[in-house]
Amino acid sequence: KMQQPIFPILSLGFSKLKESKARAEDTFPQFFELPVELRFYVLSFLNETDMCSVAKSSRTLRQMAQENMIWRDLCKQSGWEVPYETVSSLFDFDYKKYFSEKLTISRKGSLNWSLSPKVTGTPITKRFKHTATAFGKYIIFIGGQETDTKRFNEIVYFDTQTQAFFRPIIKGDMPPNFSRHISVLVKGRIFIFGGFDGFGTNFELAIFNPATFTWTNVDRSQIRGEFPAPRTNHAAAAVGNMLYIFGGNNNNSATGQYQVLDDFFGLDTDSLTWTNLSQSTRNSSYPHARSGHSLSTINNKLFLFGGGVWNETDGWVQKSTDIHIFDPSTQLWSQPQCTGKIETSTFVISFSIGNFLFIFGGGSKPKHCVTNDLYILDTLSFTWFSPEFEDKDKPQPRDMGTATAVGQNVYFMGGYAGGAVSYFDKLTVDAKPIFEKNSWVEIAGCGAR
Questions:
Q1: CA 421 → CA 146, 307, 364, distances in Å?
Q2: pLDDT score at 308
Q3: Does residue 292 contact residue 337 with C-beta atoms inside 8 Å?
Q4: 230 contacts 218 by C-beta, under 8 angstroms
Q5: pLDDT tens digit sequence for 149-201
Q6: Which alpha helices (H) appear in 66-172, and where do they start and end?
Q7: Which of 94, 248, 251, 259 is 20 to 30 A distant from 7 in Cα terms?
Q8: For residues 317 and 310, what is the distance between their CA atoms, to the nearest angstrom?
């Protein structure tokens, strides 16, 4: 009976085989004479680094090391167990890929802040509740406000390759001076909905073509279906050609009274047809009325986070840290039970990379102040975790700003911290298996934890 200490030695032997180009089958014939079940049992004692060494030593061993059950067990041993419901809902779930992503995003040094990186051109002035949308190598900033009455109608491009800001000449209609709208890229066009000018005017649907710099205020005569009410502080995301919006604030059209919304609409961006999904999708997991929340698309599903209920008399009377998921394929909402801790809730700055939802800043739920904490939700295991940074390396606290991911870099712009701010920071996510087809070298390179 072989004892556990032999397995690292076996791994080392396989690794040296690769260097000498000898055949593993010739050097360790006893191993290859074992029944397949016992060979897998032997491999089950190896950690991820040893497994990579084994995989690089022989074609046969590489095939064995690809087996899903080996990486499933490694996930369990690391405390990264994925619920059965999640695995069964995803076709051919790849545990090796999941292990690689989780290991690289969790390890120290995978996330690095660059505060106020050097840029050229005229930077954006201080503002909050603007939008930022990725379009190829560009980030496109639209609108925003500095005060209640000073709102912007400018459209600013940032080239992430040259690190340069520029302002194109806008064709077509004139963008309004507004903030608290949404902007989502769908099939090469940016769809904008909602927003307020600070003087009583709310806005509806507009479309911006980022390739031709053309803005179009869409007339209601061109739109079909049931129109959502104009609003602010709502959230939006897209799946395929469908744009979805949820919640927000507006004033009741009959009474003029301020209200928090819980409605849910979808826009077919091909036919410009709105559909009210509020009743057809309402179930026990349907989100309550809220504003200041976020909506992100991950694996063709919508992930709604946080927000709360605010009124003019008492301020925030409810803050949420819940997650709700909408699956367009089933038209159903669900609410997973997440583990871990997150202490921010309203007007957070959110983005997603791979299977991970990132939440930065926002209004702290227990402390009633803006924060500069970063939280990550693993949307497969529904576990929150928070990477550690030295205080000197962390950006300034804020809410109501934007974060836009382009490749491995995430650019943070503006926000509110007692007043509008012009902070411009960069977070580099050094986690290659998330961005590329992962290789054994990349997994092994993560080393010991």
A1: 8, 21, 18
A2: 96
A3: no
A4: no
A5: 999 999 999 999 999 999 999 999 999 999 999 999 999 999 999 999 999 99
A6: 68-77, 84-89, 95-106
A7: 94
A8: 6
β-bridge partners, 358: 351, 376
Q: What is the pLDDT of residue 448?
A: 39
Write the DSSP symbol of residue 221.
G
Residue type, 364: S
**b (16+ CB within 10 A) / e for 205-244:** bbbbebeebebbebeeeeeeeeebbbbbbbbbbbbeebbb
Give the C-alpha separation, 253 to 232, whole Å: 14
Q: How far apart are CA 303 and CA 357, in angstroms?
A: 9
pLDDT digits (tens, 9 = 90+) for 307-356: 999 988 889 999 999 999 999 999 999 999 999 999 999 999 999 998 99
CB atoms under 10 Å from CB of 96, counted, come to 23
Q: What is the DSSP string of 23-69?
A: -HHHH-HHHHHS-HHHHHHHHTT--HHHHHHHHTT-HHHHHHHT-HH
Taking each helix axis from N to C terminus, what angle separates 68-77 and 95-106, rounded to the nearest 10 degrees?
A: 30
Q: Which two tokens stand for residue 243?
A: 């744009």
